[in-house]
Amino acid sequence: MSSIKLRLLDYVQTLSGQRPDLTAVVASTLPLFLRQRYSICIARLFGRKTFLAIESEDWESSTPGEYAKHAQMLGVKLGAPVIVVLPILPSHARNRMVHMGIPFIIPGSQIFIPGGMIDLRERFPKPKSKREKSFSPATQCALLYHLLREPLAKMSLKDIARRIQYSPMMMSKVKDELEAANICRTARAGRSMVLEFTATGGKLWQQLAKELVTPVKRKHWIRWEKRKNQLLLAGMSALSARTMIGDDRLPTYALTLGMLGELLSHGMCEICHDADNATAQVEIWSYDPNLLGDGKLVDHLSLYLSMADSPDERVQQQLEILLGQVKW
Q1: Is residue 150 part of a domain?
Q2: Residue 189 near residue 173, CB atoms below 8 Å
Q3: 197 with 287, same domain?
């Protein structure tokens, strides 16, 4: 049993004097991002049979608005109200969730169940940083290149650096991150150091799922002054091209911050404050999307990661189709 579930049981027992039983619920009809983020259980809390959505401790805290959307989607799918169980919640977010009427439990610290139990003491565990558990952009790029383009196993670190366009010094950091995550080990082949992966294909992707993050750092609305045709479609535009979902009104493109700076300096586009005056949206990526894209669209796995947290059920359905297109 996970630590958050144990803390939940201890906390409820402290408040009620009774230790509830948690019964896992198989929720295969839920969108993939909800299944990855929450464990669904049933328990009798304070005399009521209750659905609990227990957030994995590997996830970084979301906004109250996002938790409200998650709770609503879960409630609709499960046919009953849901209490979200969160590892941690900052005080400003807690206050907002109380005002929004979202039932939640922070094991060991706080509980808010309207009409049932309320305990809002100011005691918080130290937040866990998701960044400490996720890979650097260079390491994520190398892993996706390995999965999608060509195997990096048995290839020298110098050759890998050349393929993914990072410095040998950065490749040393990549190697250290991969070894620390037990994803690969290094071996000597002649005078070179090579990588040996512990899993391949779809098994490696499943092993990496919680370590990989969206490549999108920020988004901007832009207006073209001179059309740039070489940019890769991203976001809803790329998902629309790869699946049956409809595109947004304005196209979305992926580029790095340096690429956007070059476009701006050459007068190719200008940044807009809102969508009304824009002709496109651009996503600023943490690694070069062209390394993995096909010349027209961003790659399948980066696209999946960039949209995995979408609350739109239609998007989640198409993302599962998108993953099914990958030839491991």
Answers
A1: yes
A2: no
A3: no
Going by their DSSP bridges, the two strands 117-120 and 252-255 should be labelled as unpaired
Contact 197, 146 (CB under 8 A): yes
Instruction: Check pLDDT > 60 for residue 242.
Output: yes
**Domain end (from 68, 94, 120):** 120
Tell me if 127 is assigned to some domain. Answer: no
- Please check whether residue 85 is in contact with residue 4, taking contact to mean a CB–CB distance below 8 angstroms: yes
Task: Please enumerate in sequence order all residues whose Cβ is within 8 A of that of 83, keeping only pairs 6 or more positions apart, or say none.
Answer: 45, 50, 51, 52, 53, 103, 104, 105, 113
Q: Which amino acid is at 103?
A: P
> What's this model's pTM, rounded to 2 decimal places?
0.62
Rounded CA-CA distance 168/159 in Å is 9
Q: 297: which DSSP letter?
A: B
For residue 164, tell me if it sits in a domain.
yes
Tell me what pLDDT residue 124 has.
44
Q: What integer pLDDT is reported at residue 82 of this predicted model?
A: 93
Nearest one of 306, 295, 311 to 71, comparing CA atoms: 311
Strand partners, 48: 45
In this structure, the answer to whether residues 37 and 105 fall within a common structural domain is: yes
Listed range (119-133, 194-208, 297-311) with the worst mean pLDDT: 119-133
Considering the domain architecture, whether residues 319 and 231 belong to the same structural domain is answered as: yes
- Residue 78 burial (10 A CB sphere; 0-12, 13-18, 19+): middle
Alpha-carbon distances of 38 from 58, 107, 277, rounded to whole Å: 11, 15, 39
Buried b (16+ CB within 10 A) or exposed e, 106-116: bbbbbbbbeee
The beta strands (E) that lie in 238-324 are given as 252-255, 269-272, 280-285
Give the helix ranges, DSSP H, for 266-312: 300-307
